[in-house]
Amino acid sequence: MNAITLQREQLEALSAIDLIALNWQLDWRLTARPNQLAPEGDEWDFWGAMAGRGFGKTRLGAQWLAEQAWNDPGPYHVIAPTQADVRFVCFEGPAGLNSIIPPKLIDKWNASDLLMTLVNGSEIRGFSAEKADRLRGPQCRGLWADEVAAWMRAEATWDMAMFGLRLGQHPRAVWTTTPKPVPIITRLVKADRTVITKGKTSDNKANLAPTFFRQLKQYEGTTLGRQELDGELIDPKEAGVIRQSWLRLWPAEKRLPEFQWIIMSLDTAFTEATISKGSDGLMAADPTACSVWGVFHHEKRSNALLLDCWQEHLGFPDLIKRVKRELNVHYGDDQDKALIAPMFGSDKPLTSGRKPDLLIVEDKGSGISLRQALTRDGIYAYAYNPGRADKLSRLHMVSPVFARRQVWVPESAKLPGQPRTWANPLIEQLCSYSGPGTTKHDDFVDTVSQAFRVLLDKTIMSAVRKPTEGKEPVVPPPPKYANPYAA
User: Fold this and answer.
1) What domain range includes position 56?
2) Is the CB of residue 282 less than 8 Å from the CB of residue 159?
3) Which of 61, 137, 286, 348 has its CA 20 to 30 A from that of 220?
4) Are residues 280 and 142 part of one domain?
5) 115-118, strands of its sheet edge to edge
6) Cα–Cα distances in Å, from 253 out to 337, 410, 417?
7) pTM of the full structure
8) How far is CA 444 from CA 266, 383, 449, in A?
9) 325 CB contacts (<8 Å, ≥6 apart)?
10) For residue 331, which of 381, 259, 265 has the smallest C-alpha distance?
């Protein structure tokens, strides 16, 4: 009995429904591009498809999930950014599940409950990333996560989805997205047993309108074009308002400059309640964050060097204690020797050097209470009021200082060419931020923007080089150890 005869006998034994399903799956194999087909073998748990607009990511995800639901009956999940996306893209869209699954394989479709049932008993249920709690309880054999980079509560939604991915011998997940430099994508790309497929909009040129590609010429070579059309994951730290390449490294072996000012900038959690757990059981609140900057003259203009940074979830009494302790840390020059405190930690304050001259606290929420409490102890903080400017606008206001390379971070002595380890959390957050949702927290962003806004407003720093070289600044820096509140 040859292979052809055996194959014919097997086909003749199939039911009409099975033949429809087989023809449907074979047709996809013959028409799909190679980078739209799932990786072979069992050595992967997650398949990520990062590709440009119009590549065919929706069809890829829908086809994979539908085949899994047919070949391995059971419950399956679809997650998209919003309820409307789940219904009108993932289920009812032109490349969605209703469109690509043969009608005879679908038993029923409930648009209100976002629930599709196949004739083999499999159920495919849709969820919105806006409501992570809805994923508590439901379990599945596999899931398709669509446009993950656009999820509003990405981290919480993905975590809840993973808790439910627990049925069958080998539960798997496929995620499809136009890549964006957001924390969830960085996390998924680095996950164990993950296979990444990449693709460009032009890969699907045969199925897209010619006018569409003529319009896209204006984006060729741009960062937006690389991301949205070429499916390239831009380095998060080069995609924000502030780029890491703008920061300069103060050599580890070089003694620190003489600082005219040392500024401590504090961003407090809005209220003490914000440090509690959210409804999804995860610590979603913002911590209190602090950054310390030393201002000095270099290359005939003002510069600033990061001296310390930290963030922590603190109740109000502990916050007061921490701030008092930090204000007693000594930085900078001690006679002719340069010192820097962060390497020793705030628990070991130095007894020489210079303490912060100015404490900046945002004039909102718990910041108001903090300033009042410190005032009672004779400690006066500068009240920073951002007005109606949002976080992104505030960062844009101070970005020229960074663009002109007036901001420094200390170099690591152990890792030449890299910032010190303690500075990395601030740098990563600051240089990744490009608007709400682009970073998990934005507290360091606030400490930086308010510090440099005050420095610019008070003419302690300037983003413009003085026209006459050697000329003294219009407003001279204060003498060493001057009281900034004396004037």
Assistant:
1) 11-234
2) yes
3) 61
4) no
5) 106-110, 115-118, 123-128, 75-80, 142-146, 172-177, 46-51, 194-199
6) 12, 10, 12
7) 0.59
8) 9, 17, 9
9) 346, 349
10) 259
Q: What secondary structure does DSSP assign to 362-400, as a single string?
A: ESSHHHHHHHHHHHHTT---EEE--TT--HHHHHHHHHH
**CATH number of the domain residue 270 falls in:** 3.30.420
**CB atoms closer than 10 angstroms to residue 369:** 16
Are 156 and 282 a contacting pair, CB within 8 Å? yes
Query: Is residue 474 assigned to a domain?
Result: no
- Rama region for 231: left / alpha / beta (φ>0; ψ in -120 to 50; rest): left
179 CB neighbour count, 10 Å cutoff:
25
C-alpha span between 334 and 481 (Å, rounded): 12
Tens of pLDDT, residue by residue over 343-372, are 333 344 444 567 899 999 988 878 899 999
Average pLDDT of the residues of the chain = 83
- Whether residue 256 sits in one domain with residue 220: no
Q: Report which residue type is found at 161.
A: A
Amino acid at position 283, single letter: M
Position 432 scores a pLDDT of: 82
Looking at the structure, do residues 206 and 328 belong to the same domain, yes or no? no
Q: What is the DSSP letter of 39?
A: P
183 and 249, same domain (yes or no)? no
Which residue, among 479, 465, 474, 468, has the nearest Cα to 298 in the 3D structure? 465
Q: How confident is the model over 415-440, as a mean pLDDT? A: 85
Contact residues for 411 (Cβ-Cβ < 8 A; gap 6+): 249, 250, 251, 252, 417, 418, 419, 420
Identify whether 486 is part of a domain: no
Q: Is the pLDDT of residue 410 over 80?
A: yes
CA distances from 183 to 12, 132, 233 (A): 51, 17, 12
> How confident is residue 67, by pLDDT bands cut at 50, 70 and 90?
very high
Structure-block tokens of residue 39: 């990786």
Please enumerate in sequence order all residues whose Cβ is within 8 A of that of 268, keeping only pairs 6 or more positions apart, or say none.
288, 319, 361, 362, 365, 366, 367, 370
